[in-house]
């Protein structure tokens, strides 16, 4: 399910979105905005997780995971 919303963006951001769509990297303005918002949501979750880890210290069961994850290539 999706909802249609209206947002007001600065001209330079609209130009950027249109360039991304025009280049074929994304199929629509909505796709560009959706991808940016999904990325921001992941960033915020990661920040929250980092704050929890900083406050509680590392989990001994997951000790090697960060090192492994740092070497894994992530594609957008």
- What does the main sheet amount to? none
Helix content: 55-70%
What form results from the Cα inertia axes?
A: elongated
Number of contiguous helices: 3
Task: Determine Rg (CA atoms, Å).
Answer: 18 Å
> Pairing-aware structural class of the strands and helices?
mainly alpha
Q: Low-confidence runs (pLDDT<50, min 5 residues)?
A: none
The total count of strands amounts to 0
The end-to-end span amounts to 23 Å
What proportion of the residues form beta strands (DSSP E)? Answer: under 5%
* Secondary-structure element order, N to C: HHH
Average pLDDT, to the nearest integer? 91
Q: How is this structure best described in words?
A:
- The structure is a single chain.
- The protein has 76 residues and is mainly α.
- The model has no long low-confidence stretch (mean pLDDT 91).
- It is elongated and about 45 Å long.
- It has a domain at 11-57.
- 61% of the residues lie in helices and 0% in strands.
- The chain has helices spanning 11-22, 29-56, 65-70.
Write the layout of secondary structure elements.
Blueprint: H1 11-22, H2 29-56, H3 65-70
């Amino acid at each position: 399910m999706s909802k249609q919303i209206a947002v007001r963006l600065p001209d330079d951001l609209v130009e950027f979105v249109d360039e991304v769509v025009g280049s074929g990297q994304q199929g629509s303005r909505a796709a560009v905005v959706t991808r940016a918002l999904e990325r921001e949501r992941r960033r915020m979750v990661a920040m929250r997780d980092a704050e929890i880890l900083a406050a509680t210290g590392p989990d001994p069961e997951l000790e090697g995971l960060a090192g492994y994850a740092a070497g894994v290539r992530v594609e957008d």
